[in-house]
Amino acid sequence: MSEMQTFGNRPRARALGIAVGALATGEFNAITDVHGVRVGHRTIIQGTGALVPGQGPVRTGVTAIIPHAGDLFLEKITGAVVRINGFGEVTNTQQIDEMGVMEGPIMLTNTMNVPRVADAVMDWAFEHSTDMNVTTWGISPVVAETSDNYLNDGRGRHVHREHVFEAIETARGGVVAEGAVGGGAGMICYEFKGGIGTASRVLPAALGGYTVGVLVQSNFGSRAKLRIDGVPVGRELLDYDERLQRESHGSVIVVVATDAPMTSRQLKRMGMRVAFGLARTGTQGGNTSGDFAICFSTARNRPHHSTTLTLPLTQVVEDGALINTLFDAVAEATEEAVLNSLFQAETMTGRDNRIIHALPLPETVEIMHKYGHHEVHLP
User: Fold this and answer.
1) What gap in Å lies between CA 217 and CA 61, rounded to an integer?
2) Least C-beta-crowded within 10 Å: which of 132, 183, 243, 328?
């Protein structure tokens, strides 16, 4: 039922008939198809014209992914972080790697705002707990970033405490806003406007009917390499407008959620398959790209305070169709989430009147037809 959904002013990929992969999508074709997962954004758009460092124009924001409706500190989620290329930051990865759990919201923002967002998450957590740093340790925030400096005044560090609180507290299930919203507000993907994108896959009932949901913050890619369902769309659009001449290939953060009972080690294995989904869109990662997968399972929560010496925990079998189909689901959903970040994003004018155009949809449809994809049409 997600095929004709249009969440913003522009259609998603499936609304045009671009249905990558073979697995079924969830109801919303979003990370929120994993039961209990919620997403919230705070987008900050202010000012126009020439850059005044520290003041604006501002094209930035913050996104919160909430794994479940309970107390995220007292009911920690099994998690893992996978580094694809490490020129970037995901906070507290050492603790996650050691303990195999995460204990708060997952936050996405721009590079210079990572410390401020982490600090605000601590404030939010302290407001919701009287025990932290009194009878037990405090929260270790998970904050990831990509750089929006091409369109945004990075020196101003414009994401503040109230913005972080708003993103967390307005997080909802169901439809997820995509494109130039939240942490993706000022991001660029394949030299077109990018940002937030999401997608999901549901496994067949015979394999447990598990759901895998993906949300990306896309800020990567060279236009010449952009591929949509295998079609070299970027190569055909090289002369569409003035191309960017950026030194790096940018970065991407991919958040993967599942209700399959997976250990931290298994989540790492699943997170590695994110790279294959990204590659299908045309990237191999750059020398100075910060590419990370943040993965969690909602089926293996661990209590902060345990009253027993052992915990009975179920995990998927790493043999045969189930684990391989979960890997397929990650790659498919990652590919489609990147496409949705492109299809949903609007053209944006940022600092110094720099313009990043949205992916042109009529031209894209024509190119798809040229390569035999006659099922693709504007809605």
Assistant:
1) 12
2) 243
Whether 121 and 104 have beta carbons less than 8 Å apart is answered as yes
Q: Which of 148, 291, 297, 341 is catalytic?
A: 291
Residue 289 is among the residues annotated as catalytic for this protein = yes
| Cα–Cα dist 192/200, whole Å | 23
Identify whether 222 is a catalytic site residue.
no
Q: Which of 264, 289, 297, 341 is catalytic?
A: 289
Helix (H) or strand (E) holding 64: strand 58-66
* Domain annotation for the chain: domains and CATH numbers: 24-364 (3.60.70.12)
pTM (global) more than 0.90: yes
Q: Is 153 a catalytic residue?
A: no
What is the chain's pLDDT, residue by residue, as a tens digit (379 residues)? Answer: 233 333 458 999 999 999 999 999 999 999 999 999 999 999 999 999 999 999 999 999 999 999 999 999 999 999 999 999 999 999 999 999 999 999 999 999 999 999 999 999 999 999 988 889 999 999 999 999 999 999 999 999 999 999 999 999 999 999 999 999 999 999 999 999 999 999 999 999 999 999 999 999 999 999 999 999 999 999 999 988 876 655 556 899 999 999 999 999 999 999 999 999 999 999 999 888 999 999 999 998 888 988 899 988 899 999 999 999 999 999 999 999 999 999 999 999 999 999 999 999 999 999 999 999 999 999 9
Q: Name the 3-class secondary structure at 370.
A: helix
Catalytic residue among 251, 264, 297, 341: 251
Could you tell me the end-to-end alpha-carbon distance of the chain, in angstroms, rounded to an integer? 15
Tokens of 311: 């915990």
DSSP class of residue 186 equals T
**Residue 256 · residue 213 · CB < 8 Å:** yes
* Partner residues linked to 42 by β-bridges: 62
- Give the other-Cβ count within 10 Å of 377's Cβ: 12
Tokens of 56: 């604006």
